[in-house]
Amino acid sequence: MSTAFPRSRAGDVGPAASALQRERRRRALAATRAAAQTAGLAVAGVALIIGAWWLISLGTDPVRVPSPQLVFDTLRADWNNIPALSFIAFQSGGIKQALVYTTVNVVGGVAIGAAAGFVLGALLGRVRLARELLGPPLFVLGTVPILVLAPFLTIWFGTARIVQAGLVIAFALVTVAAVTQQATMDIGERYTDYAQSLGASPRIVLVSIVLPATLPPALGAVRVATAAGWSFATVAELLGGNKGTGKLIQSMQGLSATADIMAAVVALGITALVIDAAIRLIGTWVIRWQE
Amino acid sequence: MTRTAAPPAIELRGVSKHFRLESGEQVRAVDELSLTVPAGEFVCVLGPSGHGKSTILNLVAGFAEPSEGEILSAGKPVTGPGPDRGVVFQRDTLFLWRRVAENIAFGLRAKGLPKPERDEVVARYLRIIGMESYGRAWPKQLSGGMRRRVAIAAVFANEPEVLLMDEPFVGLDYARRATLHTVLLQLWERSRATVFFITHDVDEALALADRILVVVRGKIVMEERITQPRPRSVEDLGTAAVAELRTQILSLLELGAGSA
User: Fold this and answer.
1) Which residue has the higher pLDDT, A153 or B58?
2) Considering only CB atoms, which chain B residues are within 8 Å of A11?
3) CB–CB of B158 and A17 under 8 A?
4) A22 to chain B: nearest residue by CA?
5) Structural domains of chain B in order of their starting residue, each with its CATH number
6) DSSP letter string over chain B?
7) How far apart are the CA of A179 and the nearest CA of chain B, in angstroms?
8) Which pLDDT belongs to residue A6?
9) Domain of A268, in residue numbers
10) A118 and A262 part of one domain
11) Residue A90 in this model has a pLDDT that exceeds 80
12) Is the residue at A139 inside a domain?
């Protein structure tokens, strides 16, 4: 007896491999077209803003509104070193060093907060005791503005990096935990029932079913936390730090160096965009299975 | 020396299941049901919607506990889900984040089967369902019929003693159903597992079953054995005797639906 199922009767099989390849090519082409269109529109949007900025700067004092050209020249000149900074802020280097300090705080803070939030959210979603015990305090923490933590962190840790990164960690943890908890609770029982009927232990259910199923919403929360993380890190530097882009902006404000402030903001914005694109790209790959 | 007969694959002894509605009213979904399914039998269960078919399946699967009575699987009380009772749901439950081959291998991996043996089993089942080239495909890349085939293969690959199927082919057209019937029978003949198959389609039950049960308001109201050998052709299902049986079943279903 032949065990192979006859292809001629399998209406939806077709020439399997080539059909898959054709489908992949078609999707890749459509994705490239969509990406090109999006990129074109984004470039047009940026050009529009720079054009408006340039027009405004034409009739305005450069100390109030420096032209785009002046800001880009300043960015280049002060990228590695701003001598005045060492006297005012006791901080050496230029825009690059400040930017690296802030970026490390944001990326590191989000990584630590999101990892902890993912595990905590899955635990809250799966274990009723944990939900009843930790749910209410986390809910309260979620309703309190994160910036309220800044004075406490400053009292406890002074001007250490943990003060600036701490706000980012706290926000990422609360955001990712809340989203992951909800996503965990939303997983249909049919998935876990099915896995158990195939002999999966609770550990396998958690690792192989619950965690992958909650990845798409959790990755969305990571992007939100990263976007907000730039604000938290910069504001924390303004409030009590002695390094970073926020501190640099505050110091330049004292010198009325508007071009430097705008150069730092532009550099921060570009870095944030690049990191968001990287997270999106990695996220798209990680959840490439999503329908 | 006397030889002890093998226990039935499934046995329900006076099983009832009650649910309390939000209004406070208590509903008896399964009503003092007793049933014995010998090992290797293919049983099809018909009945109007909401009359307890899926509840019976969930009880046997161990997803729910009976309010009264006892359920045994191969002579042992059912206390929860287990790999001895594989389940194919109405909506496919393929893990979207696992490729086709990984879906089929899921139960084997949970059992701790080494990878080379796992790969061998997966390759065999992919061949049987006619999807050798799709091992690395994601479920999202498959059609509805292909997904059902993978779901069935994943359960059979785990070699359960009992296969519980809750309207697994609902929503598919006639041709795809016929294809899947062939796949199912082929897999069943190789494994000789006991199949408990819920359907709304009388012709599907007539084509597949050793025994047809009609459940109305949580009770078995009709039980009919089909002795015609498989595979059953359209001609086989067009005889006067089969037509009469179909009419009887349809009348019961109509009466049952009206009484709900």
Assistant:
1) B58
2) 145, 175-176, 179
3) no
4) B141
5) 44-51+82-259 (3.40.50.300)
6) -PPPPPPPSEEEEEEEEEEE-TTS-EEEEEEEEEEEE-TT-EEEEE--TTSSHHHHHHHHHTSS--SEEEEEETTEE--S--TTEEEE-SS----TTS-HHHHHHHHHHHHT--HHHHHHHHHHHHHHTT-GGGTT--GGGS-HHHHHHHHHHHHHHT--SEEEEESTTTT--HHHHHHHHHHHHHHHHHH--EEEEE-S-HHHHHHH-SEEEEEETTEEEEEEE--SPSSPPTTGGGSHHHHHHHHHHHHHHHHHHHH-
7) 19
8) 35
9) 68-286
10) yes
11) no
12) yes
Question: Contacts of residue A13 in chain B, CB cutoff 8 Å?
Answer: 130-131, 146
Indicate if A111 and A36 belong to the same structural domain: no
Instruction: Assess whether A205 and A89 both reside in one domain.
Output: yes
pLDDT of A2 strictly over 70: no
pLDDT in tens, A177-207: 999 999 998 887 888 889 999 999 988 998 8
Q: What is the mean pLDDT of chain A?
A: 86
Domain count, chain A: 2
Residues A228-281: tens digit of each pLDDT: 999 999 988 888 778 889 989 988 888 888 999 999 999 999 999 999 999 999
Residues A126, A36 share a domain = no
Q: What is the CATH number of the domain that holds A178?
A: 1.10.3720.10
Nearest residue of A to residue B175, measured between CA atoms: A11
For residue A31, tell me if it sits in a domain.
yes
Q: According to the model, what pLDDT value does residue A4 have? A: 34
Distance from CA of A195 to the nearest CA of B (A): 8
What is the complex's ipTM, to 2 decimals? 0.85
When CB atoms are compared, the residue of A3, A195, A287 closest to B128 is A3
A10, A197, A291 ranked by CB distance to B85: nearest: A197
Q: Is residue A195 within 8 angstroms of chain B, CB to CB?
A: yes
State the best of B55, B57, B96, B186 to mutate against chain A, taking most chain A CBs within 10 Å.
Answer: B96
**In this structure, are A42 and A125 located in the same domain?**
no
CB contact under 8 A, A190 and B139: no
Whole-number percent of chain B with pLDDT over 90? 67
The minimal CB distance from A11 to the residues B63, B179, B183 is found for: B179
Q: Is residue A162 part of a domain?
A: yes
A207 and A228 both lie in a single domain: yes
Instruction: Look at residue A23 in the predicted model and tell me its pLDDT.
Output: 79
